[in-house]
Amino acid sequence: MKALHPFVLLSLIFLLPLSIGSVDGYGHGEALHGDALALLSLKASLSCRPHVLRSWLPGNVASVCEWTGVRCAGGRVVSVDIANMNVSTGAPITAEVTGLAALASLSLAGNGIVGAVAVSALPELRYVNVSGNQLGGGLDGWDFPSLPSLEVFDAYDNNFSSSLPAGVTALPRLRYLDLGGNYFSGVIPASYGGMLALEYLSLNGNNLQGAIPPELGNLTSLRELYLGYYNAFDGGIPPELGRLRNLTMLDVSNCGLTGSIPSELGELASLDTLFLHTNQLTGEIPPELGNLTALTRLDLSNNALTGEVPSTLASLTSLRLLNLFLNRLHGPVPDFVAAMPRLETLQLFMNNLTGRVPAGLGASAALRLVDLSSNRLTGMIPEMLCSSGELHTAILMNNFLFGPIPGALGSCASLTRVRFGHNYLNGSIPAGFLYLPRLNLLELQNNLLSGPVPSNPSPTLTGSESQLAQLNLSNNLLSGPLPAALANLSALQTLLVSNNRLAGAVPPEVGELRLLVKLDLSGNELSGPIPEAIGRCGQLTYIDLSTNKLSGPIPEAIAGIRVLNYLNLSRNQLEESIPAAIGAMSSLTAADFSYNDLSGQLPDTGQLRYLNETAFAGNPRLCGPVLNRPCNISSDAGGSTAVSPRRATAGDYKLVFALGLLACSVIFAAAAVLRARSYPGGGPDGAWRFTAFHKVDFGIAEVIECMKDGNVVGRGGAGVVYAGRARSGGAIAVKRLNGGGRHDHGFRAEIRTLGSIRHRNIVRLLAFCTNDQEANVLVYEYMGGGSLGEVLHGKGGGFLAWDRRYRIALEAARGLCYLHHDCSPMIVHRDVKSNNILLGDGLEAHVADFGLAKFLRSGAGASECMSAVAGSYGYIAPGTYEHVSLHTHVLVFCL
């Protein structure tokens, strides 16, 4: 054999790796080409928007490793991440991810994909994330046995609605499983207790039922377990969960659990967070929970726990959050809570706690939120409550606290919300308290505070720096003048200082409060004129200056407040006539001018003509048709007109009588025509009286026209609801109540409640009508979205995403919070259920149907007994039927 030339040999040595690489590259190239085709198939099945995944093109297969979201290794596609790229057009799709033999990671999260996606035959796949989509049905299309390497499966926040997939139990390496935020139903399979590699399991936010399987106690590698929220389990918490010694997070909140808290939970030595709130747990708090020394968050709120707070909890020195509110705990607030060095949030409100607030509270920890309200606590507010300088919320209302407000709170610059109302606090308001730079809400009403309303102690605080929006100092013993420094509170929306001993003039600086919506200075000793500057408060809807010593004329500038609904100037010493411009205000729905020294003819325009004559009582020199007191109309030499109700000639009486007779004839004729049009085949229904609570563009004619059988949209025990139209074409809802006015207590409660309420999450009562036959009719704003019950359970109900459900619950809670805390007297709805949550066109929530509303006056306790329990079965907190009492926290169960 001929020897190879050294150069040829050298060339072979160099070319051999190249040849081997070419062959290997050809093999990988073919496989990579197949991966590219699989990705193109996936793109086509996803019905992607045109502007996304532009690089995924058939003519660009050779560059597949450079495609958006694609990563390669070893000549194969190993990762596809197109999360949050908004790829979906919203059209339902059916997609399958397969044919990517080396794929290790797949993320389609946050794309809103509608339809079904299945994954199969991916032996190297370790990570899958399809969360934040709208995938429906079940997971039957997923071939889990063909995914033997899967370690992470995240399907949170979709529309899966079958039973929980059993196939996941065949994944030996599965460490992370999140099926929360879906519509999975049925029970948790006992076989889930066999996934021994699991470290994270979330099944919260589904429609699961049955008992929590004790087999979950076998998951000894588990670190986080979430089972709550919208699930409705039977029974209680399995004691076997106490075997999960590696557990750091246990959340079984809001899922209908009953029974007591197992003492075995005290064996979870690694536990950082324990959330058991919003269930129906009973019994005492186990003292064994004091063994959880690593615990930083403990929330047992909104249950029916009894007994005292166990002293063993003093061992929880790492605790940052302690929530025990809305239970039936008694005894004192333990002194050890004041010694917890890391405590930031302490909420114990609405229990039966007694004794003093620990004097050292706030001295040892950087407290941020303290709420001890609605207990039976006595003693004084701790001096060191804000010693850390980080306290932002302090709520101690509805207790029996006495003594002064600590002066240090007047310099607590971190405060944003303070609610100390309904106690027995005395002394003066600390200097600077009203003018703290971050303070948004300050309630000190119904105490025994005295002295002046403090002026701004810091001239450097300008109006632009103040954030105070709500200030309530009503029902105290405050004296002296209203300080002009209130003008610095430029963000103020509510100023309530009624029923004090304030004297002096209403400062004209009040006109600088351009965002003011509600002003109540009634029940004081204010004197002098009403300042013209009040007309600059263009956002005012409510003014009450009654029961003072105000004098002079009513300023015409009030008419410039275009949104004013309520005006009470009664029981003062006001003089001259009611300005015609105020009479012409179309926004005014309630007014009281009684018991002044007003004179002249009442304006016969605007809403004043609908007021009852009691609104003008005690003004003997007023005259006009509303008062059935004719005016003497005469002209002086200059041609001007004078009005006097005191003397009238016989000729004047004849003229007035003739004009009145003519006007009555026209009115009666119009009424007859109106009745004939509204009731073509029926008899008269009596004379109608119409009262508006808002500026409206309809009258009794439109209301009567609505009440036809063809317009019925709903019937209930209280009456019939009709859909109608105002003159402008806008939709209204007309509710004709069953029963007569003298016996329909629901009507009276609803009128009294809704007529004075202004809140974006409470349905607006626009007007009400009644007649001689005692027919009662309410006119509401129309809610185009129907009721929450219809949306969730009706035949035409559609899918309601979890984020939208959350927003609806939050908006309804805001409406209830307004009724419980911002209405005086407190209002309790007593029948909160899905059918009484109405939705606007944008699915915004409005609390409705106050026919069962109950007022809690200051003289009645929060547990005032009733002869019968109102509300709907299934929407009243358990125990309410046995213990016939009324608490605002009962409504938390309804939501």
Automatic annotation (TrEMBL):
Domain of life: Eukaryota
Pfam families, sorted: LRR_1, LRR_8, LRRNT_2, Pkinase
Family annotation (PROSITE patterns): PROTEIN_KINASE_DOM, PROTEIN_KINASE_ST
Protein name: Protein kinase domain-containing protein
Ranges for domain Protein kinase: 707-895
InterPro entries reported in the protein's UniProt record: Kinase-like_dom_sf, Leu-rich_rpt, Leu-rich_rpt_typical-subtyp, LRR_dom_sf, LRR_N_plant-typ, Plant_LRR-RLKs, Prot_kinase_dom, Ser/Thr_kinase_AS
Species this chain originates from: Triticum turgidum subsp. durum
GO molecular-function term, one example from the UniProt record: receptor serine/threonine kinase binding
Compartmental location: Membrane
Keywords recorded for this protein, A-Z: Glycoprotein, Leucine-rich repeat, Membrane, Receptor, Repeat, Signal, Transmembrane, Transmembrane helix
Protein family: Belongs to the protein kinase superfamily. Ser/Thr protein kinase family.
Signal sequence, renumbered to the chain: 1-25
Source lineage: Eukaryota, Viridiplantae, Streptophyta, Embryophyta, Tracheophyta
SUPFAM superfamilies noted in UniProt: L domain-like, Protein kinase-like (PK-like)
GO cellular component: membrane
